[in-house]
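Morning run. Coffee first, then this:
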Amino acid sequence: MPKAKYKPSSKLKSIDQLSIAKIVATRLGMSVSQVVEVVEMEQKITMQHVKNNYKVIKKNYITFIPIVKPGYLMHSRLDSNTYEVPERTTIRTKVGQGFKSYVSDNSSKMPDNICRFVDRKEKDVKEIKPLTA
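And here it is:
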């Protein structure tokens, strides 16, 4: 197995969701349990929409794209049997440009609206045709 090309810094720090909830609660004058409830609700709604084949866009932050892979028949070379592999959904994630630029550039200012929740079915997105000259 090849070695990883990039490794995280040995000085990497970490923070968990509860610690972030405590910071938000302190800054907004809310209770920690209220903040945790809001965060968990947002996460569950995101997961439900992705499971229902919605593309979930959190503008400039992250995008979740469900990819439905079709089922197929697989012929095993080990036991010469044929197996049916069912249709399955995988998730592609893309980190937003606003998030990337803020993290990578030490002099950048955090955008005011870093996150916006938009959901729509991938099938409903209209294809944009290029203009021909």
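The helical segments are 17-28, 32-51, 97-104. Good start to the day.
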